[in-house]
């Protein structure tokens, strides 16, 4: 009879321990979700810049990042055409890298600007490197 009490006590301790582990995982997931929501709010806004262009003066670019993870990207090839091109979709973040659905390149997120990365996801080097950034407008 005594061994039944011991087994019941061990079972009770295991149940409590497992529920604590599951609770910690749920808490960590909730904190991660809250952090992503906060990051979405912090990065949301308008970004603008004139990116380098091979066969035009510049690519006048305006990127709007919304808190609901949608984006609108507008650009005009200055000196080549007055047509405005628009892309819309969802954006996502992994660490400090911003990805736009339907766009081949990504952006490195800094406090007040976005730095466009090359197609391999690396920072652009060289004389024009500083021109590949979109500054926060609002």
TrEMBL record:
Pfam families: NlpE
Gene3D superfamilies assigned: 2.40.128.640
Domain of life the protein comes from: Bacteria
PROSITE patterns for the chain: PROKAR_LIPOPROTEIN (PS51257)
InterPro entries according to UniProt: Cu-R_lipoprotein_NlpE (IPR007298)
Name of this chain's protein: NlpE-like protein
């Amino acid at each position: 009879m005594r061994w039944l009490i011991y087994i019941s006590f061990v079972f009770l301790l295991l149940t409590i321990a497992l529920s604590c582990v599951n609770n910690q995982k749920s808490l960590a997931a909730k904190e991660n979700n809250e952090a992503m929501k906060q990051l979405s709010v912090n990065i949301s806004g308008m970004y603008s810049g004139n990116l380098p262009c091979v066969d035009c003066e510049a690519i006048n670019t305006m990127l709007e990042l919304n808190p609901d993870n949608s984006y609108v990207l507008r650009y005009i090839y200055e000196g080549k055409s007055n047509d405005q091109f628009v892309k819309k979709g969802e954006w996502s973040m992994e660490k400090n890298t911003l990805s736009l659905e339907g766009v081949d390149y990504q952006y490195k997120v800094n406090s007040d600007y976005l730095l466009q990365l090359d197609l391999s996801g690396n920072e652009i080097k060289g004389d024009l490197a500083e021109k590949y950034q979109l500054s926060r407008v609002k």
